[in-house]
């Protein structure tokens, strides 16, 4: 029995050593979350406009095109829930903050933070921002790099960085990801239909995310900060494959909140004819040229409402 146990321990030992070594190496790798956090913290006293949301703003808003000092704190698949947690964490560290831009997309109002194939991204908020949502979906695996992603993907990251000298940082110092280039654009018809079916859940229950939006609006109103709910551009192949009832409900909800709350504004760019096929990387994301156009439009819009009074609640 003792010999069998000893053999078993000897069998496990190299696996354990390898796992520990991989965990140590992974934690030392550059990471977009770590990079953006550090960049934002260097600009605490300067940031006037904070852009939040998921991939539409992550790829579609370049802060360098803004007149105000702007930072893009968006990440792929970031929900309103994490928008709120990040804002709550940092709002009192940003004394110059005047405007918060929120991405309101088709999935925004029914998306739950722990749902779907992107749920693994929650680890990054714990690991790099020390944010732990108080819900039982927060399993122990989110505390370790090696348990968060398949081993093959983790080893590939190490290989690319240490052996291929490939950068693992995909964002600029102001938080925009400029990797979606026009020359590499995908099939807009196919990707638009695929992404629409992926995002178009049957639920019309907005209650969870409406409460989150109210929380965001409240903490901003208390500090005299404007909240801008913006529907960012998507290609026609994406919009045509969405539930039109739900789509219109989301637009109407944004308009209603802009009327209901004194510090809330609504700006709809989705469907704007100024955006053509040449502006899109895939069915629901802008390419770098489209991001430039979008950023300039959002900047012009923000500048146009700067003179509006803000009345803290």
Order of helices and strands: HHEHEHEHHHHHEHHEEEH
Quick one: how many beta strands? 7
- What is the number of independent domains? 1
Largest sheet, if any?
5 strands, parallel
Q: Considering the protein shown, what is the CATH homologous superfamily?
A: SGNH hydrolase
- β content, as a range? 5-15%
CATH topology call: Rossmann fold
Summarize the structure in words.
The chain has 313 residues and is α/β, with parallel strands linked by helices. It has one domain: SGNH hydrolase (Rossmann fold). It is built from 12 helices and 7 strands. α3 links the parallel β1 and β2. α4 packs parallel to α9.
Topology:
Elements: H1 2-28, H2 32-42, E1 49-52, H3 55-60, E2 70-72, H4 80-90, E3 99-103, H5 122-129, H6 145-148, H7 151-162, H8 188-199, H9 207-221, E4 226-231, H10 236-239, H11 244-260, E5 264-268, E6 280-282, E7 285-286, H12 288-304
Parallel strand pairs: 1-2, 1-3, 3-4, 4-5
Antiparallel strand pairs: 6-7
Helix pairs in contact: 4-9
Question: Which key terms come to mind for this protein?
Answer:
Rossmann fold; 313 residues; two-stranded antiparallel sheet; globular; five-stranded parallel β-sheet; alpha/beta; 7 strands; single chain
Task: Quickly describe the structure.
The protein is of the alpha/beta class and 313 residues long. 46% of the residues lie in helices and 9% in strands. It has one domain (31-114, 125-137, 168-304): SGNH hydrolase (Rossmann fold, 3-Layer(aba) Sandwich).
